[in-house]
Write a structure and sequence with these properties.
Oligomer: heterodimer
Shape of chain B: globular
Helix content of chain B: 25-40%
CATH architecture of chain B: 3-Layer(aba) Sandwich
Number of domains of chain B: 1
Helix content of chain A: 40-55%
Strand content of chain B: 5-15%
Number of helices of chain A: 9
CATH topology of chain B: Rossmann fold
Radius of gyration of chain B: 15 Å
CATH superfamily of the largest domain in chain A: Histidine kinase-like ATPase, C-terminal domain
Distance between the termini of chain B: 26 Å
Structural class of chain A: alpha+beta
C-alpha cells in the first residue's frame, strides 16, 4: 500500500465497474462505499440502497453476529485473501435467499482512508456441476463393479451346470440334462447382457477424439465385412461416397456397424434385400446420415423404445440380439452432439437417421 | 519344491474349484498352491523376511486382480521390485476387461492377460492352453539366472 488511490478522478470507479465479479467496497467502519453493476445484479439491490449501509445486509443472518469481528480482524491485518481459499462462504440477496460464494478481499489505501474491496462470485452452479460429475462418476464405477462382480457367480452357475452334465449326465436323465442346459444357456445370455452394460458405461466415460472420418468409405468397408461373414446371402448395398464428418472414429464405427448389422439382420428373409447408406439434408445439423433397408421394419408405435437398452421389438428366436446395439448408437451419437431417430412401417423396411454436430472443415 | 508348481491367487472359492477342475480335466499334473488373497500370495513368495534363497519359485502364477487385503496389481509390483520374483511368469486371470486394468497389469509386469470366460468349457480350454503354453512350450527362465537390473 505504497501508492494512494484517488477516488475522485473516477479511474477507480471505472475499474470497479469493469471487474467481471461483483465488487463491494466498504470503509473501515463497515459501511458500503461503492458497488458495481454486477453486485447489484447478484444481490438484487439498487446501488443507492446499498451505499451507506452496513455490509452485513449482504451476509446471511446466521453469520451476521460474527461478521463485524471478522471485518475488524481483516482491517487490522489486511493481507490479500484469494478466492476459494478453503472457506465456505455465503451471500444473502435482497429477497433473503442465500447462495454459496467465493470471496476474495483486498485492502486499498485511498485518499478517503482504507477501503476493503470484496470480489464476490456465486459458485452455486459450479458446485452443482461438480456434484453431478461426482454422482455420474460414482454411478459409472457402480455399474462397473456390479457388472464385474456379477460375472463370478454366473461362471459358477454355468460351470457347475456343465460339470453336472459332464459327470452326472446319465443320472439326470434327458429332462434333467435339458434343465442343466437351460441354466448354461441363460448364464451365457446374462453374461452378454453384462458385457453390453459394461460397454454402455464405457461409451459414456470415453474421451472423444474428434478427427475427420470418411463415413462413406467406412460404411463400404463394414458392408464388405458383413457380406464376407455370410457369402451366400445376396444383398444389394448402395453406399454414398464422400460423406465426411468430424467424429471419434472408433465410436462412429460402432454406430455404422450396429446400423448396418441391423439392416443385414432384418432383411434376412428377403431375396431382393437392399441396404442403403447416404447423407440427407440435416436441417441445423452439420451432417445427417441414414441407413435404409427393405427388411421387416417395425411398428412405429414402439419407435421410442428402439433406443432403450435391453428393449427388443422382435422375438429372440426370429432375430437374435441383446437389445443394446441401438442404445449404444444413441449414446455415441448424443455424445457427438447429434441425435438419432428411425422411421418405419411393419413390412416396409426401416430408415435410421443420425446427425452429427461438426462437419469437417465447417 | 518342484519347478512345476503353479500358484493360483484367487479369492472366489467357486472360481478356485472350477480352475482346479479345469487343470485336472486337461491333465496338468503340476502341484497347484492356492493363495486366497494378495497378502497370502506375498507371504508364500516371500516367506519370513530373510533373504534366503529357499523361497518357492512357482513355474507360473495365475493372478486375479480384485483380491482382498492386497490387490493383484500390488502383488505384481512387489514381485517386480524383487530380483527373486521378477522373472516368474504371471498371467492375470480376471473377470475384468477394462482397458485400464489390462494396461496397468502389463505396466506392472504381467506376462499375459486372460479374461475368464463365463462358459466353463471355454474357461477350461483357456486354463488348459495356459498350462500347455507356460509349462510345456515356453522355455522357463534358467534356474541360475543372472540377477541384474
Amino acid at each position: 500500500m505504497t501508492q494512494r488511490t484517488s477516488l475522485a478522478d473516477g479511474t477507480f470507479a471505472a475499474l470497479l465497474e469493469a471487474a467481471p465479479d461483483a465488487m463491494v467496497c466498504i470503509a473501515a467502519d463497515g459501511l458500503v462505499v461503492m458497488v458495481n453493476a454486477q453486485a447489484e445484479r447478484l444481490f438484487g439491490y439498487e446501488r443507492a440502497e446499498l451505499i451507506g449501509q452496513p455490509v452485513e445486509i449482504l451476509v446471511p443472518e446466521a453469520a451476521r453476529a460474527v461478521h463485524p469481528g471478522h471485518r475488524a480482524g481483516y482491517v487490522a491485518d489486511p493481507r490479500h485473501r484469494p478466492m476459494g481459499a478453503g472457506l465456505s462462504l455465503a451471500g444473502r440477496r435482497r429477497d433473503a435467499s442465500t447462495f454459496t460464494a467465493e470471496i476474495s478481499l483486498s485492502a486499498i489505501d485511498t485518499d478517503a482512508g482504507i477501503l476493503v474491496a470484496a470480489a464476490i462470485r456465486d459458485v452455486t452452479a459450479q458446485l452443482r456441476v461438480k456434484d453431478l460429475e461426482r454422482s455420474a462418476q460414482s454411478l459409472e464405477s457402480f455399474i462397473y463393479t456390479v457388472s464385474h462382480d456379477l460375472r463370478a457367480p454366473l461362471r459358477a452357475l454355468s460351470g457347475y451346470s456343465e460339470l453336472l452334465l459332464e459327470e452326472y449326465g446319465g443320472v439326470l436323465g434327458e429332462e434333467g440334462r435339458g434343465y442343466a442346459e437351460r441354466i448354461v444357456a441363460v448364464s451365457m445370455q446374462m453374461g452378454q447382457l453384462i458385457d453390453c452394460l459394461l460397454q454402455l458405461s464405457r461409451i459414456s466415460r470415453a474421451q472423444l477424439n474428434l478427427q475427420p472420418v470418411d463415413l462413406g468409405g467406412e460404411a463400404a468397408q463394414i458392408a464388405g465385412e458383413i457380406q464376407r461373414r455370410e457369402p451366400l446371402r445376396h444383398v444389394c448395398f448402395t453406399i454414398q461416397k464422400q460423406v465426411r464428418a468430424l467424429a471419434d472414429r472408433r465410436l462412429i464405427l460402432t454406430v455404422l456397424e450396429n446400423l448396418l448389422d441391423n439392416a443385414w439382420k432384418f432383411t434376412s428373409g428377403r431375396d431382393d434385400a437392399s441396404i442403403e447408406f447416404g447423407a440427407a439434408p440435416g436441417g441445423d445439423a452439420a451432417v445427417c446420415c441414414y441407413v435404409r433397408d427393405n427388411g421387416v421394419g417395425f411398428d412405429p408405435a414402439y419407435a421410442d423404445k428402439l433406443f432403450q437398452p435391453f428393449q427388443r421389438l422382435h422375438a429372440a428366436r426370429d432375430f437374435p440380439g441383446t437389445g443394446t446395439g441401438l442404445a449404444s448408437v444413441r449414446q455415441i451419437v448424443e455424445r457427438h452432439g447429434g441425435h438419432v431417430w428411425a422411421e418405419s412401417a411393419v413390412g416396409a423396411g426401416a430408415t435410421f437417421y443420425f446427425t452429427l454436430d461438426e462437419k469437417e472443415g465447417a | 519344491m518342484t519347478s512345476q508348481t503353479i500358484l493360483l491367487v484367487e479369492d472366489n472359492p467357486d472360481d478356485e474349484a472350477l480352475t482346479l477342475r479345469a487343470f485336472k480335466k486337461s491333465n496338468i499334473s503340476s502341484e497347484v498352491v492356492v493363495a486366497r488373497d494378495g497378502a497370502e500370495a506375498l507371504a508364500y513368495l516371500f516367506p519370513g523376511d530373510g533373504d534366503g534363497d529357499d523361497a518357492p519359485r512357482p513355474a507360473l502364477i495365475l493372478l486375479d486382480l480384485n483380491l482382498p487385503k492386497v490387490g493383484g496389481l500390488e502383488v505384481l509390483r512387489r514381485m517386480q521390485a524383487d530380483a527373486r520374483t521378477r522373472l516368474i511368469p504371471v498371467v492375470v486371470l480376471t473377470s475384468s476387461k477394462l482397458e485400464e486394468d489390462i494396461l496397468d497389469s502389463y505396466r506392472s509386469g504381467a506376462n499375459a492377460y486372460v479374461r475368464k470366460p463365463v462358459k466353463f468349457s471355454e474357461f477350461a480350454e483357456a486354463v488348459r492352453a495356459l498350462g500347455v503354453f507356460w509349462l510345456l512350450l515356453n522355455e522357463p527362465v534358467p534356474s541360475r539366472a543372472p540377477e541384474s537390473d
